[in-house]
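Changelog note: in this version the structure field was regenerated for every chain. One regenerated record is shown below for reference.
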Amino acid sequence: SFIAALKNKPIILNSSRGEVLDESVLKNGLKEGKIESAVLDVWENEPDIDLELLDLVDIATPHIAGYSAEGKLNGTKMVIEAVSAHFNLDIEELNPLLLSNENLNVEINCKGKLDEEIFSEAILHTYDVLNDNERFRETPTTFEQQRGNYPIRREFQAHTLMLKNCKPHVSEKLKQLGFSI
């Protein structure tokens, strides 16, 4: 009823929990053209996902949205802090400098490019979700193996952009996304 009541066709993005979204409603909405498109990182009944739904969504990944090196470090840090607090231990905080910043400089010449092209170039240099989408669709039955052997990926703040011929408002928006300039 929610989707039927919408005036515009929504784009659905789910990277929280698979059960947050009723996949049967999503499937019907996509089939009936009431939903513009869908991007899913999480699925009901993982790792046994609905393969029909996989065919209907635009971008699909195997629950790896939080699998950046920084995401893993932050998760580990929260566990250490909780254990330390619970057992009244004096455990030192994890040093974020444990992550290497090698080869994270990106040169972008902004001359003659639309703002969107510059944003796209910066983002795709750090992470191209379509690679994960392709890998997942090739063998969706290896859901758990793909998660367990996920390649190291770094978040925007780990990357330094070296911008040439760039307008100040573009540089400022890239900073707001978390990039170092």
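Spot check on this record: The longest strand covers residues 105-109. The chain is about 40% helix and 10% strand.
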